[in-house]
Write a structure and sequence with these properties.
The complex is a heterodimer of chains A (about 110) and B (about 120). Chain A is built from no helices and ten strands. A six-stranded mixed β-sheet of chain A has the order 2-10-9-4-5-6, with no helix packed on it. In chain A, strands 1-3-8-7 form a four-stranded antiparallel β-sheet, with no helix packed on it. With about 110 residues, chain A is mainly β. In chain A, about 35% of the residues are buried. In chain A, strand 4 and strand 5 form a beta hairpin. Chain A starts with a strand and ends with a strand. In chain B, the strands form two sheets. In chain B, strands 2, 4, 5, 6, 9, 10 and 11 form a seven-stranded mixed β-sheet that branches. A four-stranded antiparallel β-sheet of chain B has the order 1-3-8-7, with no helix packed on it. Chain B is an all-beta fold. The termini of chain B are far apart. Helices cover about 0% and strands about 50% of the residues of chain B. At the A-B interface, strand 4 and strand 5 of A face strand 5 and strand 10 of B.
């Protein structure tokens, strides 16, 4: 199975901050990576697919980059709605696997 | 409005069975592959299973193989997950999710709100 490792596991930031979350795959997954946001008690929401393509309706302050084994999710200016957990997911082969998650907290 | 609504969760004893359902609306259900994903309390997301459009092909994570069965009723726009031999480690919120229609894109673009399964004596 492909292991997905996210860092940090928790991140404290303030509104307006630039935030970067890292996701590393245990083997080359090309650009077959998605990012999800999950607010407390809510379902996950797709943010980005194919490593850098923004899902329709997602604010442009979110961006993704990377290929191969190393990927990043960046929030250019953190907004109150963005305090949530974020997960990466590869979609090359089955089983699909997710990173352990990054919780973005209010500083 | 595109919507997925799960039901059927509850408290079950170890070794017991439970059948989850997911009602789809707002889109052509029969035209999409569908997934179940679970999340144990305070933990991350774990993919569980996927079924093709006509229900004839399914894939599972190793930890549920032989115990869980995914199925669908396209006439009723409903996805199911039959769970047998339940264990404490199956305790989780179970999400139903729609796979993107993009070719080769095994990621989920619509999610339900989840149903909670608790396995405990």
């Amino acid at each position: 199975d492909i292991q997905m490792t996210q860092s940090p596991s928790t991140l404290s930031a303030s509104v307006g901050d630039r935030v970067t979350i890292t996701c590393r795959a245990s083997q080359d997954i090309s650009i077959w990576l998605a990012w999800y946001q999950q607010r407390p008690g809510k379902a996950p929401k797709l943010l980005i697919y194919k490593a850098s393509t923004l899902e329709s309706g997602v604010p442009s302050r979110f961006s993704g980059s990377g290929s191969g084994t190393d990927f990043t999710l960046t929030i250019s200016s953190l907004q109150p709605d963005d305090f949530a957990s974020y997960y990466c997911q590869h979609y090359t082969v089955f089983p699909l696997t997710f990173g352990g998650g990054t919780k973005v907290e209010i500083k | 409005e595109v919507q997925l609504v799960e039901s059927g969760g509850g408290l079950v004893q170890p070794g017991g069975s439970l059948r989850l359902s997911c009602a789809a609306s707002g889109f052509s259900f029969s035209g999409y592959w569908m997934h179940w994903v679970r999340q144990a309390p305070g933990k991350g997301l774990v993919w569980v299973s996927r079924v093709n459009m006509d229900g004839g092909s399914a894939t599972y994570v190793d930890s549920v193989k032989g115990r869980f069965t995914i199925s669908r009723d396209n006439a009723k726009n409903t996805l199911h997950l039959q769970m047998h031999s339940l264990r404490a480690e199956d305790t989780a919120v179970y999400y139903c999710a729609r796979e993107t229609p993009m070719t080769g894109g095994f990621y989920m673009d619509v999610w339900g709100r989840g149903t909670t399964v608790t396995v405990s004596s």
